[in-house]
């Protein structure tokens, strides 16, 4: 009976630590997915010499590229951060990347995406020149 009590007490203290670690690991995975998709968008824009758009819709990252005719967009990939990592993402609804790999914005201010899972949160900040600042 004493052994069961000790195991119960140890488990009581270990569960919150495991939950925080899981939030950090899944959040870091989502951050990496966002950064990799952004790099893919820049590469796609430069290689195809066409405007590429990275959209955020309902915690999904959607990578689209203008078609050669300009009438429609080709969807290159869709990544659901909530389903895959349990992470909520907020930020601008879309960013446009021109064929030079530069963000097309009216203001020359950084673009910030915030990722949240449980008590964990992190951000990805992109400069107008396309660099990842954080």
Topology:
Elements: H1 2-48, E1 52-57, E2 60-66, E3 73-80, H2 81-85, E4 88-90, E5 94-97, E6 111-117, E7 120-126
Antiparallel strand pairs: 1-2, 1-5, 2-3, 4-6, 6-7
Brief overview, please?
By secondary structure, the protein is an alpha+beta fold.
Features:
single chain, alpha+beta, minor pseudopilin epsh fold, 4-stranded antiparallel β-sheet, 3-stranded antiparallel β-sheet, 2 helices, 31% strand
Rg (C-alpha, Å) = 20 Å
Number of helices, counting only DSSP H or I runs of 4 residues or more:
2
Q: How many beta-strand runs?
A: 7
Number of domains: 1
3D structure, described in words:
This protein has one domain (2-126): minor pseudopilin epsh fold. The longest helix is centred in the first third of the chain and has 47 residues, at 2-48. It has helices at residues 2-48, 81-85, and strands at 52-57, 60-66, 73-80, 88-90, 94-97, 111-117, 120-126. With 134 residues, it is of the alpha+beta class. It contains 2 helices and 7 strands. 39% of the residues lie in helices and 31% in strands. The protein starts with a helix and ends in an 8-residue tail after the last strand. The radius of gyration is 20 Å and the shape is elongated. The strands form 2 sheets. It has a 4-stranded antiparallel β-sheet. A 3-stranded antiparallel β-sheet has the order 4-6-7, covered by helices on one side.
């Amino acid at each position: 009976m004493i052994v069961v009590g000790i195991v119960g007490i140890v488990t009581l203290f270990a569960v919150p630590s495991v939950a925080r670690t899981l939030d950090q690991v899944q959040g870091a995975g989502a951050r990496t997915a966002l950064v990799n998709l952004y790099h893919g968008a820049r590469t796609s824009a430069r290689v195809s010499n066409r405007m590429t758009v990275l959209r955020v819709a309902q915690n999904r990252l959607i990578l689209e590229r203008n078609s050669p005719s300009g009438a429609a967009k080709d969807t290159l990939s869709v990544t659901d951060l909530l389903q895959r990592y349990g992470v909520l993402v907020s930020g601008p609804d879309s960013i446009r990347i021109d064929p030079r790999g530069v963000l097309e914005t009216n203001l020359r201010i950084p673009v910030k995406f915030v990722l949240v899972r449980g008590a964990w949160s992190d951000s990805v900040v992109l400069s107008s020149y396309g660099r990842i600042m954080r």
